[in-house]
Design a protein that fits this description.
Length: 219
């Protein structure tokens, strides 16, 4: 009987310890604000890619999977070159932590700061799964050497994302269905090469789908 009581007490302590998880630190208010992101299509999924800048609250590269049940909206993202969203205010540190976050956002056919037209107002966006997050701090000087991080997707599928450097730089994402060796770091003809040159660098990797490229923000 004594051993049973001890065992029950031990199990209860373990359950209590699991339930009492430590509280995360307070959110940094400097990351509170509106965010501009692009929506890209990958298979049957919609991915949100932050248009990172060098100042808070937008100084973070984010790739997040959007929980979307609207088939027509998925088709729109797939058919258009790019859709841009401008969120209402929220703290992007929640995405850095990997939380599921629901945010209202206006949807545009291009960057609203560059004259994009609004398609939807206050559309609900569910940021469901973090795929990538990188703060833009301690950045390398701009050079002709380009360094990429890898986002593992399904088996043999990856997304390569360029690690933004100091100005001048660029953001670039390309999906690869792996069938060969693929370099994560390579030299280009200029510090800010055109997208076509970057795509060519990945031709030996396998099947390619360019997802997004932007250099204007980083000059």
């Amino acid at each position: 009987m004594k051993w049973i009581v001890v065992l029950v007490g031990l199990v209860s302590s373990i359950v209590f310890a699991e339930e009492k998880k430590p509280e995360p630190p307070p959110l940094n208010p400097a990351w509170e604000g509106e965010q501009t992101m692009v929506l890209v299509n990958h298979g049957s999924s919609i991915l949100a890619v932050s248009l990172a800048t060098y100042e808070k609250p937008r100084d973070v590269q984010i790739v997040y999977k959007i929980d979307n049940k609207d088939v027509a909206f998925l088709a729109m993202v797939r058919d258009m070159d790019v859709l841009t969203i401008k969120t209402k205010r929220f703290n992007i540190e929640r995405l850095i932590r990997g939380e599921e976050v629901t945010v209202l956002a206006d949807v545009y056919d291009a960057d609203p700061d560059q004259g994009g037209s609004m398609l939807f107002e206050r559309k609900e966006m569910v940021f469901a799964e973090k795929l990538y997050a990188r703060e833009l701090k301690a950045l390398e000087e701009a050079s002709q050497w380009q360094d990429y991080d890898i986002i593992e997707m399904k088996e043999n599928e990856r997304i390569y994302i360029h690690k933004i450097q100091q100005k001048p730089s660029f953001t670039h994402l390309i999906a690869v269905e792996m069938r060969g060796a693929c370099l994560q770091k390579f030299r280009t003809s200029t510090r800010v090469p055109p997208e076509s040159e970057l795509t060519f660098k990945f031709t030996n990797c396998g099947g390619l789908k360019p997802l997004y490229y932007n250099a204007e923000l980083y000059q």
